[in-house]
Amino acid sequence: MKKSVIFVFLLSTMFSWSQSVDSLKVEQEKMQWFKDAKLGVFIHWGLYAVNGIDESWSFYNGYISHKNYLKQTKGFTAKDYNPEAWAKLIKNSGAKYSVITSKHHDGFALWDTKYGNFNSVDAATSKKDVLTPFVTALRKNDLKVGIYYSLPDWTYNDYTNFTRDSIRYKIQDEPKRWKKFLNYYQGQLKELSDNYNPDLYWFDGDWEHNSEEWQAPQVRKMLLDKNPNTILNSRLREHGDYATPEQGMPITRPKSKYWELCMTINDSWGYQKNDHNYKTTNQIIGIFADVIGNGGNLLLDIGPKGDGSIPKEQVEVLEGLGKWTSKHKEAIYGTVAGIPKEHFYGPSTLSKDKTMLYLFVKGDPKGEVVIRGLKNKINRIWVVGNGTKLSHKVVGSVYWSHYPGIKYIQVPEYVLDDEMTVIAVLLDGKVDLYREDGAVIESN
Ligand code: GLC
C-alpha cells in the first residue's frame, strides 16, 4: 500500500474514532440530569379515570364497548384540576421530573391538537387544554418535563388495530391509509415538540408494528433535530436512550447503562376506585432504595380522577416519600450504584467519586450493621439527616492476608429513621473491594 493511502486511512479512522468519542460525550451529557434525578412521577390521566376502569385496555379487551367507553368524555370535567398544586406535590415528593400521558392507546389527547378532535378541548366536558398548564407549572417548579405518547391510537379510524378481535386493515392491503395515520401521529408529535419542547419522550405500544412501519428512525431524528438534548425511552422499537422495566424491580442489576423502573402506586396505572391495593410508603421507599442502589430511576405512577383531583391515598404516599427523600438527599441524588450485595446485605449507593458509601438499613439492625470485604480504611461514619457519628470495629483481618476482615458498625436504636435509616461511610479513598476467593493461606 502506498504511504499516502495509509496516511489517509489512518486519518479517517482517527476522525471517525474522535467522532464516536464526541457522540458518546454528547450522549453522556444529555443523560446526566436523568441519571442524577433518581425519582420521577408518572401520571396516567384520561377518560378511563371516570368509570375507574383499565386505561384503554378495558374496551380493547372487551370489558366495555368502545361506544360506552367514549361516554366517559362526559365525566371528564377537570373541574378540580389544579396543575400548580400537582407540580408542588411532585416537587415535594423529591421527584425531579414528571411524565404525563398526553395520549394513551385510546387516542384521547390532553392538549388542543389540530389533528382530529378527540381531545380534552373538543370532545369532553373539560373543554380545555389540560396539558399546557401542567407543563408550565412543572417548568416553574424547576422540574423536567416528560411526555408519554402512545404510538397506537385505537380510536382513530385510519389506525390498523381497534380491539383484540377486530383489526381495521392490514398495512400491505392499504398502504395509503397507513400513510395517512403516519402523517397524523407524526404531526401530533411535531405539535408536542413545538409546543412543549419536552426534556423526555415516553413512548408506548410499539409492539403493534415494527420499526420500519412506525418509521422509528425518522421520528427519532425529527425529535432530536428540534432538541438534540431530548431523551427518548426505549419503547420506540429500540430507537431510544434508556430501558424501561415495568412493575417489578429487576432482581439482578440491569445491564443497560440507563434505566427506569415504572411502577404503579396500587395495581393500576389510571385511577380505579375499586383498587385499594396501595403499596405503603415504607414499601415504596424500600423499592426506591433498591432501584437507586442498582443504578436506576424510579418512575412512580399516580392516577388522578376525572375531575382532576388526586386521590388522598396517593397524596399521602407522595408526601411520605418527600419527607424521607428530603432528609436523605445526599445519599440519593447524583449518586451511582452501590456495592454488590455480598459486601452489604442491603441497598447502597456511592458518591460519584466513590469515596462515600451510603448504606440503606431497613428496620432495626439490633445493634450492628455489617460490611464485608471492604479494603478501605473508614475515616468517619454518621447517620444521614441526623448527624450522629457512629463507631465501628474490624474483625478477622490478619497481617499476612489481603483479606480485609469484617467491619461492624454500631447503630443505636435512637438514631433509626421510621422508614429507612441511611448511614454515610467516608472512605480513605475510592471504594476498594476484596473480590478474591479467600484462600486459606495466601502465598507471597
Ligand atoms: C403498558 C400498558 C399501558 C401503560 C404502560 C405504562 O405498556 O399497556 O397501559 O400505560 O404499560 O408503562
Classify the secondary structure makeup into a structural class.
alpha/beta
Radius of gyration: 25 Å
The total count of strands amounts to 17
Query: Which fold name fills CATH's third level, the topology of the largest domain?
Result: TIM Barrel
Shape: elongated
Strand content: 15-25%
Number of helices: 12
Task: Please write the string of helix (H) and strand (E) elements.
Answer: HEHHHHEHEEEHEHHEEHEHHEEEEEEEE
Q: At the fourth CATH level, what is the homologous superfamily of the largest domain?
A: Glycosidases
Q: Main β-sheet: number of strands, strand sense, barrel status?
A: 7 strands, parallel
Q: Strand sequence of the main sheet, in spatial order?
A: 7-6-3-2-1-9-8
Average pLDDT score: 94
* Bound chemical compounds: alpha-D-glucopyranose
Number of domains: 2
Relative helix content: 25-40%
What is the terminal separation in angstroms? 51 Å
**Uncertain runs:** none
Please write the CATH class name of the largest domain.
Alpha Beta
Using the 3D structure, state the CATH architecture of the largest domain. Answer: Alpha-Beta Barrel
